[in-house]
Amino acid sequence: MPDEFPYDVFLSHSAKDKAVVRPLAERLRQDGLKVWFDEWVLKPGDSIPAKIEEGLENSRVLVLCMSANAFGSDWAQLESGTFRFRDPLNLERRFIPLRLDNAPIKGSLAQFLYINWRPADREQEYARLLQACEKPELWPLSQEAKEHGADNKKVGDSSALQANPFHPAGALRPDDPTYIRRQSDTEFENMLVGPDRLISITGDFCVGKTSLMLQARRLLPNHLFFGGYLADCRSDDPQRFMKNFFKLFAGEFGAIDEWDDLERQANQRPSILLLDDIGEILAAGLEALIPPLIARFRNPGPGLRVITTSPVSLSAMFAHRGLRDPKFIKPWKCIHVSPFRDTELQELLRLLSPRSRELALKSMSVIKEKSQSIPLRVQGLCRLLFESEVSKASDQDLLAIIHDEKSYA
Predict the structure, then answer these.
(1) First and final C-alpha spacing in the chain
(2) Is 7-133's fold the same as 183-336's?
(3) pLDDT in tens, the chain (409 residues)
(4) In terms of CATH, what superfamily is 183-336?
(5) Cα separation of 12 and 16, whole Å?
(6) In angstroms, how far is CA 5 from the centroid of its own chain?
(7) CATH architecture assigned to 7-133
(8) 210 and 88 Cβ atoms separated by less than 8 Å
(9) Model pTM score
(10) Please, what is the Cα angle at 58 between 52 and 64, to 5 degrees?
(11) Which residues have CB under 8 Å from 207's CB, separation 6+?
């Protein structure tokens, strides 16, 4: 991965949406971003797949333009380009879904907070998109945020500044100052210090499953971590799936061809495999993965440990894929992540700048109703409020943001 990305933004889109995406590319470029847009990069004689792969590798942000066209015949190619940006271990990149029309959002994309780019929303949403694509800028840091560990001010520096601490999409880093501990954190920590090797984290979309899973990197700093977004291994051929699965370990362990190789390597140093959204695996891949995984790792002990996330229980998901034998479920220790409790919601809102904080805490009932206390939706609201207060928005404007359904989309 490059230390400095040549491109700020890669615009992934269907060719049929070119008339919508081209003006956006031009506007982002005019505002100083380095944009990978196929019309500006591809030349006669270029290998299109190779140039796209090169562009993806060299881009910091992927903007996926979602539409009926994108979800049609172009979808397999467009989706394949998103995996490295959706990988929870890849903290240097950002994935931003951009909704161009009213087409239903595909599968697991529904868990990501998207930006509306339907005609009526574009002017209002552009500033939000631009800031999400830019490198972090400096903003005034509230005293409340400093008290919660978000202060990056140097000793003796009177200008407390920081990037907007709230997040429009994606999992939170293990040390993120806006990460709010919940009951599930305590359960997870207790499991990690114990001998269990198979841990399952379940919960609704956007509730914080992946963020909780990533806390393992903070809690177990001496472990090796592997894994990614499992759709990257997707195949309806069991042998090809397992070949892709073993590639997850190649960077540290070298070539891995079978379970014995993996177990031997993992026994030499404590290792954790993070499998985000295990439900994305096709039935053939799951049938190839789970039986040998259970056979080798069902008993407590040293070696490789596995942590998965899923929006549904493993029992329901396995049964749907044909793995109905209770032996495939019994070894897993399960944690369910719930939406914020009132005290947890208040803790996040208290990180806002002063005026936004006061208005948000007084509007708790509205925020609970519109966000359903889903952490990512509240993060999106807080990001908008933070930006708006820095821009000197009035109290009336801040209240309008709190009451606007789009602030939680």
Answers:
(1) 31
(2) yes
(3) 455 889 999 999 999 999 999 999 999 999 999 999 999 999 999 898 889 989 998 999 999 999 999 988 777 777 777 777 776 666 678 888 999 999 988 876 776 778 889 988 888 889 888 888 877 543 444 444 444 444 443 222 223 345 688 887 778 888 888 999 999 999 999 999 888 899 999 999 889 999 999 999 889 988 888 876 555 566 678 888 888 888 878 778 888 888 888 888 888 888 898 888 888 787 888 899 999 989 887 766 667 899 999 999 999 999 988 899 999 999 999 999 999 999 999 999 999 999 999 999 999 999 999 999 999 999 999 989 998 888 889 999 999 999 999 898 7
(4) P-loop containing nucleotide triphosphate hydrolases (3.40.50.300)
(5) 12
(6) 20
(7) 3-Layer(aba) Sandwich (3.40)
(8) yes
(9) 0.72
(10) 60
(11) 337, 338, 339, 374, 375, 376
178 and 389 Cβ atoms separated by less than 8 Å: no
